[in-house]
UniProtKB/TrEMBL annotation:
Residues 309-334 are annotated as: Disordered. This is Glyoxalase family protein. Residues 9-134, 157-280 form the VOC domain. Transmembrane segments: none annotated. The lineage of its organism: Archaea, Methanobacteriati, Methanobacteriota, Stenosarchaea group, Halobacteria. It holds the Pfam family Glyoxalase. Residues 323-334 have a biased composition (Basic and acidic residues).
Length: 334
């Protein structure tokens, strides 16, 4: 489509968690991602919104969570984002299996998928996640955070998301409209219900893949499920062109919404999965320095005057620090 810049890939993935402290402990201390933003759900400021990413919050690296404690456990099924996968450096899965053993993380046997080694596991809320070994190029855009995990094993942004869909064809056509290209199919493995996995690739180096599996298996939202997946439309012009293309395809995207660190457009694709188009700016460092990312509760402008009331309603949490973790390990060893 004339004037349409293909999406480079995934911008962020937002999920539903339960206990906020448990969520922080796992994604920061166990997986080694940096808390780059501690805020609130802008549609429900009584709930935290945590953003975990690489050292600088690079687009294509942030996994975010709404810890809605009062929701029930969800179930993965059709018309959902069923799996979220992250890139890790070649040869690092042995490290991750050892780490998961030490931290009592539930994980499955490795898989080979499209020629890559995949380690499936679940977070404490039962969210299905995967680590995929890839060769990280010297000019890679991501910046590893190494407070808990060494650089040679650190997570380097998204690899892919897997969609389970009852009727894949309309969504596959939509992905092509957005700039993805079908790159191949193969037999599904593991707990995937479909008999064939189809892969689509975007143009960028990070979060470039979307896999689709056909299934009619029933699911429900709740703890351990994905709320939405966002795709990069780097500039406002890119986003408006993509919004028009989505609308022309027969979908109903929202107007642009200011999310403070990026600007967003939302729509449900043909199967009902919530998609977002997100700009790459202003970025997570627009209201905190890189050194201080995630260090305090940041409230977008319209909520700042309610800070006292909002803070009093939120549970107290402590962000894991490597120094404290080492001191605790040392004390346990004496």
């Amino acid at each position: 489509m004339t004037g349409l810049t293909p999406t480079p890939g995934i911008h962020h993935v937002t999920c539903i968690a339960g206990d906020p402290q448990r969520n922080l402990d796992f994604w920061v201390e166990t997986l080694g991602l940096r808390l780059v933003k501690r805020s609130v759900n802008q549609d429900d400021p009584s709930t935290y919104h945590f953003f975990f990413a690489d050292a600088e919050g690079t687009p294509g690296t942030s996994m975010t969570f709404f810890p809605w404690e009062d929701l029930s456990q969800g179930k993965i099924g059709s018309d959902q984002v069923a799996r979220t996968a992250f890139r890790v450096p070649d040869g690092s899965l042995d490290y991750w299996e050892d780490r998961f053993d030490r931290h009592d993380v539930e994980y499955d046997d490795r898989l080979e998928r499209f020629g890559e080694s995949v380690l499936p596991f679940r977070d404490p809320d039962g969210l299905p996640v995967e680590l995929v070994e890839v060769e990280i190029p010297a000019e890679d855009t991501t910046v590893p955070w190494t407070e808990f995990v060494p650089e040679e094993a650190a997570i380097r942004g998204f690899h892919s998301v897997t969609l389970w869909l009852a009727d894949p064809e309309p969504t596959e056509e939509l992905l092509e409209t957005m700039g993805f290209e079908e790159t191949g199919t193969e037999q599904a493995q593991g707990d995937a219900p479909g008999d064939e996995r189809t892969r689509f690739a975007a143009t960028g180096p990070v979060g470039r893949y979307v896999d689709i599996l056909p299934t009619i298996e029933g699911g429900r939202p709740g703890h351990g499920t994905v709320h939405h997946v966002a795709f990069q439309t780097p500039t406002d012009a890119d986003q408006e062109a993509m919004r028009s293309a989505v609308q022309s395809a027969g979908l109903r995207p929202t107007a642009q919404i200011d999310r403070h660190w990026f600007r967003s457009v939302y729509f449900r694709e043909f199967g009902g999965v919530l998609f977002e188009l997100a700009t790459n700016g202003p970025g997570y460092d627009s209201d905190e320095s890189l050194e201080e990312l995630g260090g305090r509760l940041v409230l977008p402008g319209e909520f700042e005057h309610r800070r006292d009331a909002i803070e009093s309603d939120l549970p107290d949490v402590t962000v894991p620090r490597a120094e404290a973790a080492k001191a605790e390990d040392s004390a346990e060893g004496t």
